[in-house]
Amino acid sequence: MIDGATGIFRALEEALKNGIPLLDAHFLQNINREKFNEILNGNIEIPLLDERVKCLNKAGEVLLKYFNGSFMKVFEAANGDAIELTNLFIKFFSSFNDYVTFEGEKIEFHKRAQLNTDMINYRLAKRGEKELSNLDKLTAFADYKVPQMLRKFGILKYTPELATKIDSYEEIEAGSREEIEIRATTIWAVEEMKEVLRPRFPQITARQLDDHLWSLGQTKSPDDKPYHRTKTIYY
Predict the structure, then answer these.
(1) Is residue 98 annotated as part of the catalytic site, yes or no?
(2) Which of 43, 56, 69, 74 could be stapled to 25 by a disulfide with Cβ–Cβ 3.0 to 4.6 Å?
(3) Does residue 55 lie in a domain region?
């Protein structure tokens, strides 16, 4: 069984192979929950299905309104710069504008915006094309698998109360102090790891460490502690 993000990617790839126009902005603008659920073809209804459909509808609307219905126009507007591309996602697509206000301060995570940029760069590199500039300025992509791995290796430690909640599969509310601190310390921990490793690997970046930690998390071990559960569109 394929689950998580990998399962979604596989379902979307199959839909494209079967002629479903997922790359067409008009189709995205008008797709409904029944059609999207049919495309995903899972053994359960995916969590936050309505919210995900709204994200697709909004993406189609934005592409038609500002980019002549073409995602390539978004890519071209970034002029090959990873930060510019990330900022375009954040500015125009509300589902990528991942921030919270905490004690009067705006805290920006932008996990999916940065990850989207990183994944685009991965495809460019795989095709032998020029990679994006400023990739080293991306932070870790703060979600749930990376902190799980950081905890496993003793880099990230939770208070007994928070550890009990996570290990009991108790939901950690999106935007709560606990969730904000998990995500913020994930980013900071990866930055610290980067600095420790830099003497041996001068070109190491946060996104590379994130990718490595996430990949480790795909190999499940019986003694692994659970990852924190949060209902959010931003992971």
Answers:
(1) no
(2) 69
(3) yes
